[in-house]
Structure formats: C-alpha cells, structure tokens
Design a protein that fits this description.
The chain is an alpha/beta fold. The protein has 3 domains: about 15-80, Arc Repressor Mutant, subunit A, CATH 1.10.10; about 120-150 and about 395-495, Aspartate Aminotransferase, domain 1, CATH 3.90.1150.10; about 150-390, Aspartate Aminotransferase, domain 2, CATH 3.40.640.10. It has helices at about 15-30, 40-50, 50-65, 95-100, 120-130, 150-165, 180-195, 210-220, 235-245, 260-265, 285-295, 355-365, 375-385, 390-410, 440-450, 485-495; strands at about 70, 75-80, 140, 205, 225-230, 245-250, 250-255, 255, 270, 305, 330-335, 350, 420, 430-435, 450, 455, 475. The chain starts with 14 loop residues before the first helix and ends in a 7-residue tail after the last helix. Keywords: Aminotransferase, DNA-binding, Pyridoxal phosphate, Transcription, Transcription regulation, Transferase.
Length: about 500
C-alpha cells in the first residue's frame, strides 16, 4: 500500500476524493484483502505529500461506507466486502454525456410519521392527558426544516418567468409519468449527486412518495409479501398494508436489515433506507448492501425499494452513493422527493423503475394522470436547471451543519446519562437512556418544561418490539430551530432530566 501511485487529476476533484476513489477501487478489485492494514494517516500523508487532514477525510469516508474498519489504537483495516456489484456497463441509451454531467446536490424522501403503533398511540394519549396544559416552547421535531432561508423572491421570479412564457401547452394534459424535460433534469441530478444510473424514461413523477408507493400495487402482484425493518417509516408500512398480501418485519443490527432473517421471511419486496435509515440514522455499509443486492438477484421477482431518506445532509465526509448505483441486475426501485431539500409543500416525488418493471407499469398504469401540475413541474425544472437549487442546498447544508454542531456541543453534559447515535447526517439524532427511565418518563418530563421530544416507539410497526430498541430512546430534531432555540431547549431538557451541567 505504501507503493501506491495516484495520478492526480487536474479536473477539480479534491485530493481526498482521489485518494478515497483509489483505495475503494483497489478493495473492489480484490487488490487490498480483508483485514489488510493500511498505512497510518500520518505516514500516507507524508508519502503522498499531502496534508494529514486530506488523508483523514478519505479514510473517514471509506469507514462510513463500510470499506474500512477503524480499530482504536491499532489503525485502519480493510473490511469484509464480498462479491461487490460494479457498474461497468456503458451509459444507457438516451443518456448523453451532457445529461450525465452536472453539479447538483442530493435529495431524498421524507415526511411525518403519521401512523403510530398501538403502544405509541397509547403513550401519546397518556402524554396529551398529562401535559396538555403546558405550552410547547421548543419543538425538537425530526421532520421540521428551516424555511427561514427559503429563497422566496427567487421562487416567485421563477414562477413569473414560467407564466410569462405564454406557453399554452402547460395548461394541457401532459405525460402521465411527468413532463419529459423535468425527468431529464431529474435524471442528470440523480446521476451527478447520487450515482443513480437511469434513462429519463424510467422516472415517474408524482405528488409525493405516498402516491408513488400506491402505484406500485399495480406493478407488483397482489399476493406479494413485503418486508420492513423495525423501526421504520410507518407511513410506508401503512400504505403497503393496504395492498400487499402480507407485510412482515425483519430485525436489524448495526449494519442494517438482517439478510438471513429476510431470506426466511419469504418476502419478495423489501423497503429499506440504506443511506440514512429513519429513525435510527444508521447508514448501511457496502458489505451489507452487497448482501442485500445478492438476496434480490437470487429470485426473478425479488425487488428492493430504496427510499433515499434524508441523505442530502451529511456533515462529515462526502455523500454516500445510493444503493441503486451498485445495482447491476435491475433490482432496485429508487425513490426520493424534494420535501426536505426544498419544502414539504412542493409535493414532488420521483421513482426510478428498473426496465422490467417499467414495461409492466406502462401496461397497467398508463390510464393514471400525473398528480403534479405542469406549471409546478416547469417551475421546478427551471429552479433545478438554473443552478438555484444547488446554491440553496449548499446554504442549507451550512446552516444545518452549524445547528448540528451547536446541538452536539450542548449535549455534552447529557452523555453521563445517555448514549448518542445517528449523528453526522440528517436532521435529527437519538439519545438512548442509560439509567433505567422509560420513554414516557423522558417525554413527559420534557413536556413539563415546555419541550417536545419524540419517542422511538412512534416508528415501531407490527406487534413485536425489537430487542434492540427496548431501552428508552428519544429523537432530537434540529432542522426547524435556530441555534438559540436549540440552546434554550437543551437548558430545559437538562432541567427536565436532572442533567448536571459539568462533565
């Protein structure tokens, strides 16, 4: 490894990205073997004549994606990564090099957890009874976003531009799958930001992921068994209960959904959020992603629904590629929205169908009209194409990153009583109690101080409670709050939970 020679690119790619790509590719090709030790960050930095922080960024990204393991006091080692899928095929017909280029950022699915388990509903009712008289001053909602920085003036300008074009066609019925020009733009965006490889013709545009999930009932057989992690996004679970033959839960570990249990479940379809799982905030490493893709490839009618939830906001390292980017067998249905990256009211989601399912969709769903108005589609297309979206998303990343750091800094005194997880990405993190309190006790005590936090039980589905979530855990969201509100909320929580202010 000390003899590695990187031909530095002069195309603007950051040095740490080039180091990351080189080591990743060496692992994929089997040149670096499982448990092989890598040079220390200091020695590799000296060898390559780059800063140590550059090497650290590359190593951190490789650890985040599951290619490397960091062993305290020993160093970095190659993780077990077998039978990697590699996208070595040429670009699909219809995608030009111009369409693949671009400098978009990321977007994915999101939404409120409206459907609670029976236990969560009972807990919520008890909470409402005991704390209804206390007004909520600080709401740590995991689903809130910051609308203070929304470019209202620019959005109005784009609307005027679209309407001033006197394009009468915008007021006529459009393509049921969404206007092709918007789908081309989304295709370029997904390829540049998430590594998704697709033709514009594979994309279906709809008013949110709820609608797109319901369309899948006509694509799948009605007798399918669908599998979900637990906890998960309850809204999707509820939608599948409306049309699937059976909906089952599969337990998870630190790497994500358990493949052996998934195999035993008899499921043909599995719903996962590999880049930022809701609500745990966990990222599925490359080894488990490969196992999941292998599971789908073993049977003709097995498919993976990838909800790319909350993956546009990452505060350490570069964005983690989508699962679809590694899918060589056409088994991943990729789904995302602009709800978190622009605004929930935009109500524009998109679904990328594998070629086999695309033909089935055309046969069965051609009678459905697109649920997003053509004017809104044109506004979104112009917002994306003009570069305004990328600039807005970069501003939001910086804003959320500051809030994330303020939250982590303010939580330091809490670490005597809580374990922290789900940090460094998304718009919420999790605190798990270590001193024996129940979730209801934590939520009620916070409410009495005028603070609203959210129990993990609200994302539990089905009858069984996974052993991994038995300890009381609360979600702390920060997207919709200012830094001052975050600090105020933490002061109130410290009083509610009897937190000593000194470490």
């Amino acid at each position: 490894m000390q003899d590695l020679v990187i031909e530095w690119k002069e195309d603007g790619t950051h040095l740490y990205e080039q180091i990351y790509q080189y080591i990743r590719d060496e692992i994929r090709r089997g040149k670096l073997l499982c448990q092989e030790k890598l040079p220390s960050t200091r020695s590799l930095a000296e060898y390559l004549q780059v800063s140590r922080s550059t090497v650290e960024l590359a190593y951190d990204q490789l650890v985040a994606e599951g290619y490397l393991e960091a062993v305290p006091y020993k160093g970095y080692f190659v993780a077990r990564v077998e039978e990697l899928y590699q996208m070595e095929t040429a670009p699909e017909a219809g995608i030009t090099s111009h369409e693949q280029a671009g400098s978009f950022s990321r977007a994915d699915a999101g939404g409120d957890c409206l459907f609670l388990s029976d236990a969560a509903c009972a807990s919520k009712a008890a909470l409402d009874d005991s704390s209804a008289a206390v007004p909520v001053q600080i709401d740590f909602s995991p689903n809130a976003i910051d609308m203070r920085n929304f470019p209202f003036d620019l959005w109005r300008k784009v609307n005027r531009n679209v309407l001033n074009l006197n394009n009468r066609d915008l007021f006529l019925p459009g393509d049921p799958m969404g206007d092709l020009s918007l789908r081309r733009t989304i295709s370029r965006y997904l390829h540049a930001s998430r590594g998704v490889t697709c033709r514009p013709e594979q994309i279906v545009v709809g008013a949110g992921n709820d609608y797109l999930l319901m369309l899948l009932r006509y694509v799948f057989e009605e007798t399918i068994t669908a599998a979900f992690e637990n906890p998960t996004y309850p809204r999707a679970w509820k939608i599948f209960q409306l049309f699937a033959g059976e909906v089952v839960t599969v337990s998870s570990d630190a790497s994500g959904i358990c493949i052996e249990e998934l195999e035993k479940s008899g499921a043909q379809v599995v719903y996962v959020m590999p880049s930022h799982q809701y609500p745990t905030g966990r990222m599925m490493p490359i080894g488990r992603r490969t196992e999941l893709l292998n599971w789908a490839a073993r049977e003709k009618e097995r498919y993976i629904i990838e909800d790319d939830y909350d993956s546009e906001f990452r505060y350490r390292g570069k964005p983690v590629p989508s699962l679809q980017a590694s899918d060589a067998a056409g088994k991943v249905i990729y789904m995302g929205t602009f709800s978190k990256s622009i605004a929930p009211a935009i109500r524009v989601g998109y679904m990328v169908l594998p070629e086999v399912l695309l033909e089935r969709y055309r046969q069965k769903c051609a009678c459905f009209s697109c649920t997003v108005s053509r004017v809104d589609q044109a506004v979104l297309e112009q917002f994306l194409d003009s570069g305004a979206f990328e600039r807005h998303l970069n501003r939001m990343r910086k804003s959320y990153s500051r809030k994330h750091e303020a939250l982590l800094d303010g939580l330091k005194p809490f670490f005597r009583q809580f374990d922290l997880s789900g940090e460094n990405a998304g718009l919420h993190l999790l605190l798990t109690d270590r001193v024996g309190r129940s979730e209801k006790e934590l939520v009620d005590a916070a409410r009495r101080q005028g603070v609203k936090v959210y129990g993990l039980s609200s994302a539990l589905v089905g009858a069984a409670v996974p052993e991994a979530v038995c300890r009381a855990t609360v979600l702390i969201g920060f997207g919709g709050l200012t830094e001052d509100e975050i600090r105020d909320g933490l002061e109130r929580l410290a009083a509610a939970w009897l937190i000593e202010k000194r470490l």
